[in-house]
Specification:
Layout lengths: L2 E14 L8 E15 L2 E11 L5 E4 L6 E11 L4 E10 L7 E10 L1 H5 L6 E9 L2 E12 L2
Antiparallel strand pairs: 1-5, 1-9, 2-3, 2-4, 2-6, 6-7, 8-9
Length: 146
């Protein structure tokens, strides 16, 4: 019997601009997703929660007061024995230098873990970094009783 869940992608926060040429903000692009499957390499369903393609960037200033709000909520059903995988990839676009690839980063969440969450869900910060540049993406996952 499956388990209904809500996956929310709330925001992207620039924690540190590092040695970026703009110094006060990062120009971010990438893709953030939620997936259901038997394992991270055996995925049945993928939901795209945020995507900004090459050369279509968003500028985010450093600090918690300069958050890029996303607010995308997706309802998914995990079938028996499936896990939830959240995360994606982020890059920082530079005008003059080579773009900074901040990597792929994913969090795997089992159904047993989801059963222990508070009814309001659990916050999952996922971090991306390159050199001294660091970005945090904020997800929440909660079980839905239907």
């Amino acid at each position: 019997m499956g388990k209904a869940i809500e996956v929310a992608l709330h925001s992207i926060v620039v924690l540190n601009t590092g040695d970026d040429e703009d110094h006060d903000e990062l120009e971010i692009r990438g893709t953030l997703i939620a997936q259901a499957g038997l394992s991270p390499t055996n995925i049945r369903e993928t939901r795209e929660l945020w995507h900004i393609g090459d050369h279509d960037i968003i500028g985010i200033e450093q600090g918690d007061n300069h958050v890029s709000l996303i607010g995308n909520f997706q309802t998914m059903v995990l079938e028996d024995f499936e896990v939830l995988v959240i995360g994606g990839h982020i890059a920082e676009e530079d005008t003059f230098g080579e773009d900074d690839y901040m990597g792929h980063n994913f969090q795997v969440i089992t159904q047993a873990e989801i059963d222990t969450f508070h009814p309001n869900g659990k916050h999952f910060p996922i971090f991306f970094s390159q050199s001294a540049q660091q970005v945090r993406v904020d997800y929440t996952v909660r079980k839905i009783n239907i």
